[in-house]
Amino acid sequence: MLKEKPLLVSLDLDETLYYRADSLDQVPYREPNKVLPGSLAPYLYLRPHADDLLRGLANHPLRHFGFFTASCGEGTDAAVEFLSELAGHPPLFYFDRSRVTFRCADSFGPYNYGPSREQVKDLKKVKRTTGFSLDDILAIDDKPVYPRQYGNALYVEEYVPGDTNDDRDNTLLRLHRLLTEYRHIDSVRHHFANKPRYFSSWETPQCSLPT
Ligand SMILES: [Mg+2]
What we know:
disordered C terminus, 6-stranded parallel β-sheet, Rossmann fold, binds magnesium ion, 5 helices, alpha/beta
């Protein structure tokens, strides 16, 4: 029988695990989960079930997690510290904006008057730092920032509190369930090749839900 292998999950931060606001007026009905000193957007609102996902990964014997964000600065460092406390475990790696590649987008829309900058996160950098094979790295993000390793990424709907949908957002709970049930014996690219890879809070669940 094939043995299950360790899996490294590379998590995006902003609009995937949390939302950061520059003013309390932006989310008037809810207290922030954390206030980050030294940041232009200090009020951090966790996405529902972000703690379940992080603890689930931290407590699973064959799961590891790291953070790959296009953000940077003191506030982001403090947010990573907060998430590590929630998980009860530090991340295996933490890459900020300095590890993101920015390239000129090669298409022009009808109302664009110039080229735009496109973010690219390259999992080969994660591979080099952690020693994990690309077969064993899964990335979660709310933006299509993995064109170089499309097969390694699952995408979630952007999280912005204040949506009427907020309380019902079970995106991360479903992702947590999927990763708990997933038996990693081959390659994430093969496993997810013909499966839905977009998680929306409005769509039919792609894995079993708790009752
Ligand atoms: Mg994001």
